[in-house]
Amino acid sequence: MTLAEMLVATAIMGMMAAALSTIALAVQMAHEYAADQGVMAQHARVIIERIQRAFAGATASESFPGAQVITYNDSTYTFPQAIAIWRPETIALDPDGSPRIEELRFFASDPDEPNRLLEFQATGDTRPAPTTAAGWRDLVEALLDDDDVEKIDLTDLIAAPKLVAGGERSYSTLRFEMRVRPDAAEVADMRDGLKSWTSLRWPQRSYGLHSGTRQSWIAFQFQVAPNAAAAKQSSVDVEAAPFFGSASLYYTLNQ
Questions:
Q1: Predicted confidence band at 169 (pLDDT cuts at 50, 70, 90)?
Q2: Would I find Signal among this entry's keywords (predicted)?
Q3: Is residue 211 part of a domain?
Q4: Which residues does residue 212 pair with via DSSP β-bridges, in sequence order?
Q5: How far is C-alpha 56 from the chain's CA centre?
Q6: Which domain, by its residues, includes 115?
Q7: Neighbours of 140 (CB within 10 A)
Q8: Confidence label for 32 from pLDDT (cuts 50, 70 and 90)
Q9: CA atoms of 116 and 172, how far apart (whole Å)
């Protein structure tokens, strides 16, 4: 083999080695990405299933439609990132009225570490549930601070960016929404004679002469980061993935 042939062969082998190295690196990166996506999907699946299961078995009445979304405020921004679901361990003490605190199951972001999503229930607290938005916020904060309330850490991967660039406050990307049909205002107008029974917004027109089927619907969304460090970044990590969930509850409303 001549010197020229040896040089050409060496160059070709070098290019092949570089190509194989690039392929190996790409395979490794793809494996790591797929592993991260799998972990994120598993965390999201647990969150969605636990919230859906809790709401599917909730108790509901005319005055309390199965759940209450708790909204936090910061300046002009609102953050509906907690929910209380009427889910007693056995039978509700007053199923036709309102829940006691011990009958409520909460899903809420940890204010101190908003990338953490917690599930908890204040067993043994027989006080009635709050009736104002401020009362609900105060209750959630008090229960989160209470060491006697057992809390389940569902995940620490919820993306929780800064409210504003360079700011100090971070908020979870978890958001809850709730819709009731017919809603409380409609039912109140019907009770006061301002609306007719048949004009209420019944889901699929499901009503009779003396009763109808009321629907409570919740929806929620959040973004999951590949790891806890990424979840705490000042902006949402580029690899964070959005997830969505919803659940419905149907129950009888009497005229």
A1: confident
A2: yes
A3: yes
A4: 207, 253
A5: 15
A6: 49-254
A7: 23
A8: low
A9: 8
